[in-house]
Amino acid sequence: MKIVFDFGAVLFHWHPPSFLARVWAHRVADEDVGAEVAKDFFQAYSGDWGAFDQGLIDAPTTADRIHARTGWPREEIVAVMDAVPSELKLIEGTAALIGELKAQGHTLHFLSNMPEPYADFLEQTFPLKEWFVSGVFSGRVKQSKPSKEIFDLALEQFGAKAEEVLFLDDHPANIAKANELGWNTHLFTTPELARLDLVRRELLPS
Questions:
Q1: pTM summary value
Q2: Count of CB atoms within 10 A of residue 138's CB?
Q3: Distance separating alpha carbons of residues 146 and 138, to the nearest angstrom
Q4: Is the dihedral of CA 145, 151, 153, 156 positive or negative?
Q5: Which of 22, 54, 99, 157 is the most exposed place for a label (fewest CB within 10 A)?
Q6: Cα separation of 87 and 158, whole Å?
Q7: What is the chain written as a DSSP string?
Q8: What are 68-109's pLDDT values in tens digits?
Q9: CATH number of 2-13+89-200
């Protein structure tokens, strides 16, 4: 079984409401406000941000579009975008899972919706090549989850058939599409629950 990890909120911390409350405190008083502002800023990873995710537009164009759409000052939008790497801290429990899985001899890959600048940051900051045999970033293949195209590209990259893969992702829509395409899946919420599922599947010892 080849095991495939999503990145945001699975291996790396990503929680837009608290992120915006931290880096945009003069506009976002708390996480409740952050959740509302995130709807306009990230558009549920569709629209402007979705195009950035797919590598169809660059960071300056993304900032231009968010500014034109919302009226927020462009320099503030750029400051938020520049702060995203500070949010992408390692989730230690998932890193421990990766270590356990590798020790058991499993082959690991990744499939992440990630704009190119942030993909570059992750590669430069964390030992992705030590953890994963290969991986797919949306910004580099011009497709994003949950499109069928990126799942097909991933299987080709991984040298795997759908039934040979277990995919861990935190977004129900991505899990639903993967299931539709015949992948084995785990809807990720915490490293602890993921480990229980991996034990149940006999991929890790109890």
A1: 0.96
A2: 26
A3: 11
A4: positive
A5: 99
A6: 28
A7: -EEEE--BTTTB---HHHHHHHH-TTT--SHHHHHHHHHHHHGGG-HHHHHHHTTSS-HHHHHHHHHHHH---HHHHHHHHHHHHHH--B-HHHHHHHHHHHHTT-EEEEEE---HHHHHHHHHHS-HHHH-SEEEEHHHHT--TT-HHHHHHHHHHHT--GGGEEEEES-HHHHHHHHHTT-EEEE-S-HHHHHHHHHHTTSS--
A8: 999 999 999 999 999 999 999 999 999 999 999 999 999 999
A9: 3.40.50.1000
* Structure tokens that stand for 75 in this block: 């320099």
Distance, in Å, from the CA atom of 106 to the CA atom of 2, rounded to the nearest integer, reads 7
Please enumerate, as own/partner, the contacts of 126-134 that have beta carbons within 8 Å and a separation of 24 or more.
126/90, 131/98, 131/102, 132/5, 132/108, 133/107, 133/108, 133/109, 133/158, 134/109, 134/158
Q: Which amino acid is at 117?
A: P
What is the number of residues in the chain? 206
Rounded-to-integer distance, Cα 13 and Cα 85, Å: 10
Structure tokens at 144: 């994003």
Contact call for residues 121 and 153 (beta carbons, < 8 A)? no
What is residue 181's predicted lDDT score, i.e. its pLDDT?
A: 98
Residue partners of 62: CB distance under 8 A and separation at least 6: 48, 49, 51, 52, 81, 115
